[in-house]
Specification:
heterodimer, A: mainly alpha, 15 helices, 2 strands, 68% helix, B: 294 residues, 16 helices
């Protein structure tokens, strides 16, 4: 806290030319009189700089301390640990980039987990947003019962992944599950299977649940965007003879671009990491690692086998991927035609 | 007939259907799709409640329908075996404390960032922006070590600070936006009258920023209440477990007591649904505004 006290004295007076009068010793401790004396400048020079900066730093301190302890130190420390072999108890042994080399060259489960994570991420981002937009177009109307539909479709957003994961593992249950019973009812016995223990369907089944949970959320985002589009644009387009498809692609989608940007960003950000709960609850990575994602593999390596250094390398790789994707995406969005 | 078809209402689904479809057909199609979507969203929840009231035999033989006979005893047994009372208590304590710490610390910091000019403000804001997009999941191993070093592993207190700390950046960012949208003239008036910054913040700004605080409270409150991953890593003691941990524990410990699982799940889900339906406007606005503001 020494800096703010020292700072005002070393600032060149010229920078504050014209404001100096307010800061004279005679009225320094009387903000009211200085504010009254010079209305426009009072806003910046109400208090002596020393006190003003001190209070600003005091106000920032608790937040900064929490951020440093729980966000910044873990990022840096994770980077450090990723170059070590460590069981969590003895002192870490520096092994250079061997953790990373092993990840790429010798850990088949990790490669499987990466593939699954990417499949998971791409499919949920695409389907959530497309379905969300489609439903938003439907509920963006003054038709009877529309509030009910909106409320109902948003409902899964409020439930936890654990609740939803458990519920859906029973829906997929081969003996008393809703899904197989439903297929039987429709006469589609050929499709009946043990959804979560079948290697061909397990990952898809989990992806479906994530989409089920979040589609209503994206629907509401798009709905807000749709409601800000002026109605007369459509009337003019109809008079000009534009078809429904033209109206959708030439009016609705371009005007929704800012909302789409945010909606995709949000789904993208969670897509790589918010998959642990569902996988853990529904399949625990099985059968035969077909639903293993990076996060479940990381937790297994760290807390079941005590390979904290190796798991840190995994975590850091995931951190880099998430950060690069987020920042590239934001950069593209900002430099694109739409100014956010 | 052709002219009748032309006279459709242009306000109805202007971007979805061709104008040659009659209004009635459009409506029919839309309702059909919406009803299917809604049923597949809501029916599983009804099914869960049905299952919680069935006997084991009923559950296996009568998969789809409502229970033939109400077995309320399932609820009594599930509550006792899953120790739901303690878990609900833990979840309430942890959610309320995390929100309290988060709201107090982040609102004060956000206000300083929104209104005060001080050396380093730009750099701090940049760090907040950068870390906002980093989910705590990716740093879970070093975070675990930090928490262990601080001696707050396996404590509600520790989890509270992990929650508050990892959602700090986002919350500051959100609240800063709200504070900046409040006209500064009101604060200036209070300052001229001799109030200090903290008084201005407490008596003038916070009451005006209530919608912003509510957004953060709902958005983060839902997150803390439902959170599993961090709780799973940082809390191993059964008596400290939150609801999501308790459910998973219950599910793995007792094999095939399906009706009891359904009962436990219903008990923790129904209050949330009731709360959501009662305050749906707040929930929908809070959860989406919280996201959009970023």
């Amino acid at each position: 806290m020494g800096e703010p006290a020292a700072r005002p004295r070393v600032l060149p007076a010229s920078k504050y030319r014209g404001q100096k009068i307010i800061n004279t010793p005679s009225n320094r401790n009387n903000p009211a009189s200085s504010a009254a004396a010079d209305g426009s400048l009072a806003k910046r020079k109400r208090y002596p700089r020393v006190y003003r900066h001190l209070s600003a730093y005091l106000m920032m301190t608790p937040a900064i301390v929490l951020l440093i302890i729980f966000v910044i130190i873990p990022i840096l420390y994770g980077f450090y640990l990723s170059f070590h072999r460590w069981d969590g108890f003895n002192s870490p042994v520096f092994i250079g980039t061997r953790n990373y080399i092993r990840l790429i060259e010798r850990d088949d489960v990790f490669l499987k987990a990466v593939t699954n994570t990417i499949i998971f991420a791409i499919s949920v981002v695409l389907v959530k947003n497309v379905l969300g937009l489609f439903l938003a177009l439907l509920v963006n109307q003054k038709i009877k019962g529309v509030i009910f539909f909106r409320t109902a479709l948003f409902l899964p957003v409020t439930l936890s992944f654990v609740v939803i994961g458990l519920l859906w593992s029973w829906i997929y249950n081969p003996t008393f599950g809703l899904l197989n019973a439903g297929l039987e009812l429709l006469g589609l016995e050929g499709l009946i299977r043990a959804w979560l223990s079948d290697q061909a369907t397990a990952l898809g089944a989990i992806i479906t649940v994530d989409i089920w949970k979040w589609t209503g959320f994206h629907m509401v985002l798009f709905l807000a965007g749709l409601q800000s589009i002026p109605k007369d644009l459509y009337e003019v387009a109809i008079i000009d003879g534009a078809g429904a498809w033209t109206r959708l692609t030439r009016i609705t989608l371009p005007l929704l671009a800012p909302v789409t940007f945010i909606s995709v960003l949000l789904s993208l950000n969670g897509a790589f990491v918010r998959n642990f709960e569902l996988v853990f609850v529904m399949t625990d990575g099985g059968p035969n690692h077909t639903t293993e994602v990076v996060l479940t593999h990381l937790v297994t390596q760290a807390f079941r086998f005590g390979k904290l250094g190796y798991a840190s390398a995994m975590g850091f790789a995931l951190f880099v991927v998430v950060a690069v994707i987020a920042f590239t995406y934001i950069r593209i969005g900002r430099s694109g035609a739409y100014n956010f | 007939m052709a002219t009748a078809a032309r006279q459709t209402n242009p306000d109805l689904f202007p971007d979805l259907f061709s104008k040659h479809l009659s209004d009635r057909l459009k409506l029919l199609l839309v309702y059909a799709i919406l009803i299917v979507a809604t049923v597949q969203t809501i029916y599983p929840l009804f099914w869960m409640v049905f299952g919680s009231l069935k006997t084991d035999a009923d559950l296996f033989n009568n998969v789809w329908g409502p229970p033939r006979m109400m077995v309320w005893q399932n609820y009594v047994d599930a509550w006792r075996i899953a120790d739901l009372g303690a878990r609900i208590g833990n979840s309430i304590i942890i959610t309320v404390l995390s929100l309290t710490v988060l709201l107090i610390v982040s609102s004060i910091a956000a206000y300083a960032l929104a209104r005060l000019r001080f050396p380093g403000r730009g750099a701090i804001f940049l760090i907040i922006l950068a870390t906002m997009m980093i989910p705590p999941e990716v740093t879970v191993i070093p975070l675990f070590i930090v928490v262990r070093t601080l001696g707050i592993l396996n404590s509600r207190f520790g989890l509270v600070f992990v929650y508050a700390g990892t959602s700090m950046a986002f919350s500051i960012f959100l609240l800063r936006g709200f504070f900046m949208s409040i006209p500064p003239e009101l604060e200036d008036a209070a300052l001229v009258d001799g109030a200090n910054r903290l008084q201005v913040f407490w008596y003038v700004v916070l009451p005006l920023a209530r919608p912003g605080l509510a957004t953060v409270a709902i958005f983060q409150g839902m997150f803390f209440w439902n959170e599993f991953f961090l709780a799973f890593i940082f809390i191993r003691q059964a008596e400290l477990q939150t609801i999501p941990l308790g459910l998973v524990n219950f599910f793995y410990r007792y094999s095939a007591d399906w009706t009891l699982y359904f009962a436990a799940l219903s008990m923790v889900t129904i209050p949330v649904i009731v709360l959501y339906v009662a305050m749906q406007r707040w929930f929908i606005e809070g959860l989406t505004a919280g996201a959009v503001k970023s």
